[in-house]
Design brief:
Shape: globular
Strand content: 35-45%
Distance between the termini: 35 Å
Order of helices and strands: EEEEEHEEEEEEHEHH
Oligomer: single chain
Number of helices: 4
Largest sheet: 6 strands, antiparallel, barrel
Structural class: mainly beta
Length: about 210
């Protein structure tokens, strides 16, 4: 979670082309002063995972999905970039607001490996489908991830090498079940609009909700 308040104007030190992904080395003494492996740093508004840090610099792997959807693919050594650490709420929030309350389970349908990253397709229970949107957040086996594609009965995620190496998502195979937690904010919005499961009301706007509370 970020605020959009840039902390530092950093610079690209090097870009390593990995075929279907890139590894960036960036300089940012301020944002790396307390950064460690696995933390998040926003680079020109794009959330990247820190692979390692040293001497005021940090490394991040950028998969094809990010390169295709952002301007990061145009960066080269010497490019300047806006840098921001995650917002602090008693601690840094590097993903999204995750409660640890499992909403259901899905099944891995297929894995499509790239040279340095992997697309995973997961079956989505009908009851959770309405909460999952393209570029929204979802938690899979406790790992905060961004949804690439969202359909009525499945969704896909992209996994960078760090996620593949340090979580169970790197070893699970097609047919394996996974725990799913959807974005709690979506459920609260649905509830406030009176369309939650088990709620017979079909309220059309918040004025009706306010009227009921009086």
């Amino acid at each position: 979670m970020f605020t959009g308040i840039v902390e530092e104007l950093g610079a690209v030190v090097a870009v390593e082309n990995l075929g279907d992904a890139s590894r960036f080395r960036l300089r940012g003494p301020v944002v790396t002063e307390d950064a460690k492996h696995g933390d998040s740093i926003a680079v020109n508004g794009v959330c990247l995972t820190v692979v390692d840090t040293a001497d005021g610099e940090f490394t991040a792997d950028v998969m094809a999905e990010t390169l295709n959807r952002s301007s990061l693919g145009a960066l080269a050594a010497g490019s300047r970039v806006n840098l921001e650490r995650p917002m602090a709420l008693g601690g840094r929030l590097g993903g999204h607001l995750v409660q640890g309350h499992v909403d259901g389970t899905g099944t891995i349908l297929e894995r499509t490996p790239g040279e340095h990253w992997e697309i995973v397709k997961i079956a989505l229970p009908a009851a959770l489908s309405r909460y999952v949107v393209e570029k929204g957040s979802i938690t899979v086996d406790g790992v905060s991830l961004t949804v690439v594609d969202a359909a009525d009965d499945y969704f896909t995620i992209s996994l960078i090498p760090t996620t593949l190496a340090l979580t169970t998502l790197g070893i699970k195979k097609a047919g394996d079940p996974v725990n799913l937690e959807v974005d709690v904010l979506a459920k609260y919005v649905e509830r406030l609009l009176g369309r939650g499961a088990g709620n017979g009301a079909d309220l059309r706007d918040l004025d009706e909700i306010k009227e009921m509370d009086r």
